[in-house]
Request: fold
Amino acid sequence: MGDILRRVLNKWLEERRKHPRRNDMVDQRISDSIKKIVDELMQKLNNHTDNIAKNYCQSDPEGIITIIDYHKPLCKALMRTFMYMNGLKLVDKGTKKKIEVEEDTEEKSFLKCIVGTTVMLKMLKKYCWFKDYVEYALRITEARGDAAGIESTYNKCSGMDFDQLKIGNILVGETVAKLIKGKDSEIADYGNLQNIIGPWCRSGHHSKVKRKVPRKLEEKEKEWMSESEMKDIVENKQYVPTDKVGTVLEKLGEKMKKKKTPYECPGSTTTEDGSDDKEDRKYLFLTLKYSSNEYGVSVILFIPSVNGIL
Reply:
């Protein structure tokens, strides 16, 4: 599984192996990293002077949707979240401003994605027009990311695909959820956000965002934030308990180590360490399901059946 998820998990396991008597110290470092990212994102969400969010939530540069005044607080919150998740920042270049990419470590990129996803589903999904402005923020972020030279599609965040995002949320989502609990009022324009919740904006003409053209089918299919598996994990708290994450990591490492057998057949997906990307992804889901259930957490996982994985 030659991807960001594998490398981050291996990094955490290696740290624990280097400090066998101080695994608590390693786990605390990871928790501190998560807390720092939560604090950074909440600062972004509390920023009333963010020109990126203001400019893109004034009007749609492509004219596809019409942004009206009482939609703007949610639009800004989602735009700030997606910009942060994908490491995009506004920098001064003489008399001009330019969007550039933060030079984050893989671990920080990974955690930014987990934190951002949890914040959106826990703190912002309750507001009307959430799906419309998630779609809009994704479209804008994708375009800005392309211009800045990074890959940021509807299916990825900081290089992560949907499967990696689910696994990451299962492992560290509980820590994130605890850190953001009670912080809703720290979001800029919180008072106005509270006005766009309830039945009045969920039915009738108020529930519709004005569009230049109807949404395309492929756009609806790209709504990874509405995937049922992610909602099950985040909204129903289907996490590995925070105090058991280290134990689950160790068990995962032991099992993955046992199954590393090099393949030599032509066209195999084996990596240099002798593991197989497709098989590892399947195995990781199965192991997490087993480990989580062992600790009394009911986790329902989707195991991909495409490309011959099953």
Remarks:
- Residues 4-234 form one domain.
